[in-house]
Amino acid sequence: MTLRGTPIARAPGFIANDTPRIVTSRFEYDDSYSLDRYLATGGYEGIRAALALGPEATHGEVRDATLLGRGGAGFPAGVKWGFCPPGVWPRYLVVNGDESEPGTYKDRLLMELDPHQLIEGCLIACYAVGLSQCFLYVRGEMAVAQERVAAALNEAYAAGYVGKNILGSNFSVDIVLHWGAGAYVVGEETALIESLEGNRGMPRLKPPYFPAAVGLYGMPTIVNNVETLANLPWIMNNGAAAFTQIGTESSPGTRMVAVSGHVKRPGVYEIVNGTTTFRDLIYGDDMCGGIRDDNDLKAFVPGGGSAPWFTEDQLDIPFEGRVAGSAGSMLGSGAVMVMDSTTDIPSAALTLTRFYAHESCGKCVPCREGGSWLEKILTRIVEGEGTNRDLELLMEVGQTICPGDFPHASSERLGLEAVPFPYQMTTICFVGPSAFTPVHSAMTLFRDEFEARITKRDLIPVAVIGGES
Is 17 inside any structural domain? Predict the structure, then answer.
């Protein structure tokens, strides 16, 4: 076997110190997506190890590893697999590759640069849960990812790693590649299932439509994120004990973090989960290297566009879901967006709110109407046409989507009591609250910037019915 690939210098994607790179180890090769390179670097040995263990032991190994979902919710994958009702067949695995959260681009790189790792992860998951059918759903705009995954699937089928009697066993799996049409809401697992069934992508009510019980075609369905599955080959090759030695007890392993915005070296970094802090990531010499032009940090979004914002005094929060949650935000999809001192905060909030308002599927009235009104009001303010009443109206509209009197992520600095995230909501899925989150963060932390945009006084009606004006 002749390998044409050589190590290359890619965008940042490494871990400091001697921690093993679990999901990005092949990124340095220019043929990282090929079957030859995958086999030369230990590829498809994880499924061999799983076949030697048996389904129950494989499931137990993943459960013992406490592999948290990397798509946003952070729920343990091994526990989720156990939710399928016994004796109900067929069952399906659905891979959520519809990565569309603003600021998030880690799964795209995994599909483009190491698609065989994802395919092997699918095989291990299917074997552990007893599945024979997998649907790999890739976001419509990711043309290169689609092509790379399709080519890798063809290679894997031809080599006998996917299909009937894999590696001479009685284990058989078909993997179907499905391209989405570019709807953000399809990142929600039940909306993705609706799309797979040929319907318009809209979320389902829970209960009864918890996918593990009633999912694709009404049958038990496991929905896992791309990065989650990409961890499985390493776990099977090295064992759960080795995995849990990295990171913390509650957040073991590594995770990929996509950093964008006003840093010197934006990119995707594989970091140690649970111990790496935002300060390490943003200012570390081996990571982002600090703020561009050596400006001051103004704010940063810790977990994708739908996460409440953090400020400089929260840089030492680690990448630990419970810690970030108790501070009033979330790690979400692993996307950190950094804003320096030159950032126009009202405009930044409008950019995010406009996205979520546009991506509403329209099923829930608070989201369909509230998101568009948040966008309209914010646009007035940003363009210098707002009134003082608009500032209060923003919060009132937000309360129709996220009811309750809740403080902000930076509440400690503001003298308020922090509350866990997510907030209460009046919608089926999180698209509606996501339109309000940047508004609430910006208004709570930087209200003075909104007030500075107000150039018109409130108009007070003077007509009096039945009397003189």
Answer: no
pLDDT at residue 94, as a whole number:
98
Dihedral of the CA atoms 395, 400, 404, 409 (nearest 10)?
-50
Band of the pLDDT at 2, cuts 50, 70, 90? Answer: very low
State which residues form the domain around 183: 35-244
Statement to judge: residues 56 and 190 lie in one domain: yes
Query: Token pair of 7, please?
Result: 């190590």
Q: Taking a C-beta distance cutoff of 8 angstroms, is the pair 192, 150 a contact?
A: no
Residues 304-327: what's their mean pLDDT?
94
Dig out the tokens for 63 from the structure: 């459960």
Q: Which helix (H) or strand (E) holds 125?
A: helix 115-129
Residue 39, H or E segment: helix 35-40
391-398's contacts with Cβ under 8 Å and 24+ in sequence apart are 391/443, 391/447, 391/450, 391/451, 391/454, 394/439, 394/443, 395/439, 395/440, 395/443, 397/370, 397/373, 397/436, 398/370, 398/374, 398/436, 398/439, 398/440
Distance CA 313, CA 289 (A): 18
Is residue 266 in some structural domain?
no
Q: Which of 223, 248, 245 is nearest to 235 (CA)?
A: 245
- 14-62 pLDDT tens trace: 455 567 899 999 999 999 999 999 999 999 999 999 999 999 999 999 9
Largest CA distance in the chain: 94
Using the 3D structure, point to which of 190, 217, 244 is the last residue of a domain. Answer: 244
Q: What is the pTM of this model?
A: 0.92
Q: Quick one: what percent of the chain has pLDDT higher than 90?
A: 84
